[in-house]
Write a structure and sequence with these properties.
Number of domains: 2
Helix content: 40-55%
Number of strands: 8
CATH architecture of the largest domain: 3-Layer(aba) Sandwich
Number of helices: 13
Low-confidence stretches: none
Mean pLDDT: 97
Radius of gyration: 19 Å
CATH superfamily of the largest domain: Alpha/Beta hydrolase fold, catalytic domain
CATH topology of the largest domain: Rossmann fold
CATH class of the largest domain: Alpha Beta
Largest sheet: 8 strands, mixed
Length: 355
Amino acid sequence: MPRDPQVDLIFSHFTPRYIATGVDANDLERLKARISRWDDWCRIWSEEAAQHAQLGLEALDADNIVTASEAFLRAAIYYHYAKHLFADRPQEYGAAHERMLRCYKAAVKDMDPPAEHLRIAFDGAHLHAWLRCPIGARQLPVAVILPGLDACKEELHAWSEAFLVRGLATLTLDGPGQGETAFALPIRTDWGKVIGAVIDALRYRNDVDADTVGVVGQSLGAFYAPLAASQEPRIKACIANCGPYDWGRVLPQMPKVSQEVFRVRSHAETIEQGHGIAKAMTLEGSAERIACPLLVVFGGGDRLIPPAEGERLAREAKGTTKFVLYPEGNHVCFNIPYKFRPLTADWMAQTLFGK
């Protein structure tokens, strides 16, 4: 049976992402060999995830808490990738999503620091987030980290670690149209209100400083982050990693499966209707209202979003702006995580701590 070219296309685009976010390279080679049809993608990834979840259960039975946490985290990431481009198949997507959440909750409850699941009231529904803050901490600055179109807050775990070890609290967020929140709220453009609701919720805590919040985004989340910074003046710093300036121009060039994810997440009935919604998603007229410090990161080899999108954002923003282009970087620079993670975490820590 010939291989489905969509399978090879997705692996070609996202292999560095899979490895950078926690997929074992040896498992990935086995997955590549096993998956020849797109229809089998979610099932086979889920089977691989289940093996790691079983390792976690066995480690728990032996009272090996750290080993269990590591295994459950791998399982969660694998379940996420089982469903991350399957948004148009709600039954398979939903089953993998629930298993991902269960495994991630099992992983983070015994981590140092642990993660607290937050439900933040917003527009008649809830935003969902994970807050990580060292036990006993008081008034720490917060990095709010946003996923992209087909990502979710759990996928951001490895990136959030870079901010945590530099003394920041982290809040990984599923906003409207993202991850856990996508079941109730579609994609929207009033991201100042989204981050504003997060900041308002943090004001009731004494372990974080709601007056010192930075926002970080990757891919489509790197459109939402500067959009929020242009609308919410309480944001003190912003990082955009490989995000679009004009999503309406970029979306039609994306793989068809990604366009379908956007259709589902925007509650459009057709791809063409989705493209119409995307046309309203631009930073034109908004970038010039960004007054906080801004870091824009791009990979010169990004095959999904052209670096010119980031160059335009950096050029039009009015605050102190830094543009970093890694010529060898791919989309989100996942092929060089040892460069983009320290860069972004150092910059955010120095900016929020005022160093």
